[in-house]
Each structure stands twice: as C-alpha cells, then as structure tokens.
Amino acid sequence: MAEILPFRALHYRQPSELSALVTQPYDKISPAMQADYYHLSPHNLVRIIRGQTLPQDSPADNVYTRAAHDFADWRAAGVLGSEATPAIYPYFQGFEVPGQAGGRKERRGFIALLRLEDYSARVVHRHEQTLSGPKADRLELLKATRAHFGQIFFLYSDPAGEIEHLVATATAEQPWEQVKDEYDTLHTVWRVADPAVIAQVAEAMRAKPLVIADGHHRYETALAYRNHARAQGGGDGRVDFVMGTLVRMETAGLTILPTHRLVHGLAHFDWAEFLASAPPMFDVQRIEVRTPARASVADFLANLAASGNSQLALGAYAGKGEFTLLRLRGDIDLDQALAAVPPTLRRLDVVVLHRLVLERLLGIGEQAVREEANLTYMREASTACDQVESGAQQIAFLLNPTPVSAVYASALADCPMPQKSTDFYPKLLSGLTIYWLDNPAGI
C-alpha cells in the first residue's frame, strides 16, 4: 500500500528571487545552463545538485563535500528555512508544448513524502530501465547532503479525480510559491496543512499503485541510500521516505515528448548498407529536404506523426538533407520477431527501434545501451539533426511520443521500457521544496 506523508519542507526564504535560485532537474542541465545558473545567484541550487568538478579535487574536498558545505552555510545564513508545520503542497504547472499549437495547458499534482518500496512489493512501478552512472553520482550527493532537492514524478490513476479535487481546494488561496522558468512555464505551489484534508488524501492514495514517470535514477538512489543507512545501523525512519510529486494519470495537460536517439562510434558504418538491410522489416521512404536540416525537421516530424497514426513508423536522418521514413511492414509478425519481449511492449516505437534497428541492423546490444557506448539521447530533434549534419554523430533516429496509457500499462505489467523512452513535459523544478533528513523540526 502506498503511504503518503506531509512534511516540513525546507525552502528558499526569498520568494521574489526564486527564478534566480531554482533549477531544472540535474539531468536536464546542460553545461550552458549550468553556467547561466551560476551567474544568476551565489545561492542558485545548481551549486549543490550539479557542482563543478575541479582538477585538484580530493576525497576531502570535492564536488560532493562542497555541496554539503554550501547546503550547511545556506541554512545557517537563513537562505534556506524550514516550515514549522507538516504539509502537502499542491503543485500546478502552466505551459505551452514546444513546437505545438493549441495554447497553454495546465498539469496538476501535489508534493508529499512517499514511503520507499522495493519494486518487488508492487506498490511503486518503474516504466524504464536505468543507467549505472547517474545513480552512483546521485548516491554520493545524497550521502554528503542527506537531502532530496528534487521530486520524483509519480503517476496514479483516479478517473473520478477525487484526490485532485481534495488538494485543489487550497488553490483558491494566495500561492505559497510561484515562479516562471526559462521555458515560460509557470510553477505555482500552495500549502495544505489541514490534518483532516491530509488524512483524506493519504487514505485515498493508500490503494493506488504508483508509476514513476520521471526520476527512476533518483528513486533507485533513495532505495540504495535507505539500504546503506540500515546496514550502518542508523536512521530514525526518515531514510525510508522520498519526496515526490504525484500526478493523476487522467489529468489534463499530462504531456509526453519523444526522446530521440543519436548513434555514434560505429566502426565502418555505411548509410547505404543500412538502408539496403532495412526492407525485410521496413518499408523505406527517402525524403529529400532543404538544407540545413533545421529548416525542414518540423515538416518531417509532422509526416512521422501522421504515418504513426496508421502504422508503426520511425524517422532517421544521416545528413546531407535527406530524411528517411521507416514504416514497419504489415506482414511482420511482431509476436514472433520480438518473442523475447513482453507482449505489452512489442508494438511500441521505442522498443521496435531498440530491438529491430539498433540491435539487429546496427549491432548495438543491450550492454552497449546500458553503458551508453553508442547512444546519446536528445529531446530537440532539430539539434539532433544538426549534430549529424556537423559530423559529430552518425545518425539520428526520430520518434513519436509514447502514449501515457502504454507507459502506465507496461509499468504495472512489470515490463520496463528501454532507457529514456519518455520525456514528460514540463519538468518539475528542483528547489521548490527540499526534504532534509536531518531537519531538527522533524519530518
């Protein structure tokens, strides 16, 4: 059963300056964004969640120890302070989807603590595989700071919207926090400290299975840290919880963008040979466009989306102003071709790409994918094509977004998708609320 708790959030005490203090999630911060965040404020959270590694770093002085020192200094100086009363925090995001018409949308959720559960307990379900490198990095930061600075993004199903209605009653009041980020998304947070409302929400959530939408690495890091703390014989139970934003699967505004794949480092790669090898499984349509690729990528993505409405389709770009549409042939028996893949995954674009294209046609196996030996992941299709055009990458594979219903069903069936199969948009900001395990005021 899912156990939801209110908590005394640690947060920035300068609400009017939030735009200079909070950040996108650590794994979405590019080097250019990191530099911008550093210039915004000496107290920008990037200094903690994604500090700069220096040549003279040592076990006693490194990116993690500096993060811990900054965190302690900011608390001592009153830059960060704790709420006196435990609460849950309704969190709404107003946004426009990049490159899409239709006006602004709103995604609604609430921030709370969730008791950590092993996947085997079938309370929390993953929908993606994870990579080892990010988990090792996040574990060292968690050990050093004993705090969670960003929320795990969880999905739950509630067709009637009972829970969303309960937490939304607070949103008629003045927001507790409000900030607009660099993507013009408006993030608004309220506090709900009424024990009766919190108890109703917790009880309604108890029977809900939860699916991780974003934050698999951080969730598994929290599990690892819980186990580490238990092995050390310490802890007062606070390590048993993680901070999350819980969003109703049926809520308006729940948006998934595709994460495209860039292939590099293949010896003797030949684009013509690749195209010649595809027809047994795919119908190949080559589409010449104007160069540079950026000028026509939106048109190609629209073509890809339209093709995906009638049959499974993948896009590819190998440079020189030529896109390729790979349509899965109608006579291909996916149940046979992907017999080793769980049935819930066999007809997903990203699975067909990984198993039939990357693995069979290009020889990029699961181990190479886990180690990121030949793959780079990118949200922006135009940037991906630019990198191919410049020669930095060999080929870009472009995808349609994975449906939310498929994400949820696959997770509950215990059939995680390949890494980076989804990109929920917008991201949850880091630094709006902080779960500090050593908060002297209590959990």
Care to describe what's here?
By secondary structure, the chain is of the alpha+beta class. The chain has two domains: 4-255 and 425-436, no CATH class; 259-400, no CATH class. It has 14 helices and 21 strands. The protein has helices at residues 31-40, 46-49, 63-76, 132-145, 162-168, 195-205, 216-231, 271-277, 297-308, 334-337, 349-361, 366-370, 381-390, 404-412; strands at residues 4-5, 10-12, 80-82, 89-95, 105-115, 124-125, 147-148, 152-156, 177-180, 186-189, 210-214, 241-248, 255-257, 260-263, 282-288, 313-317, 322-328, 375-378, 395-398, 423-425, 435-436. Strands 1, 4, 5, 6, 8, 9, 10, 11 and 12 form a nine-stranded mixed β-sheet that branches. Strand 9 (177-180) and strand 10 (186-189) form a beta hairpin. Helix 5 (162-168) runs antiparallel to helix 6. The longest helix is centred in the middle third of the chain and has 16 residues, at 216-231. The chain is globular. The relative contact order is 0.18. The mean pLDDT is 91.
Label this structure with key terms.
single chain, 443 residues, alpha+beta, nine-stranded mixed β-sheet, six-stranded antiparallel β-sheet, 21 strands, globular
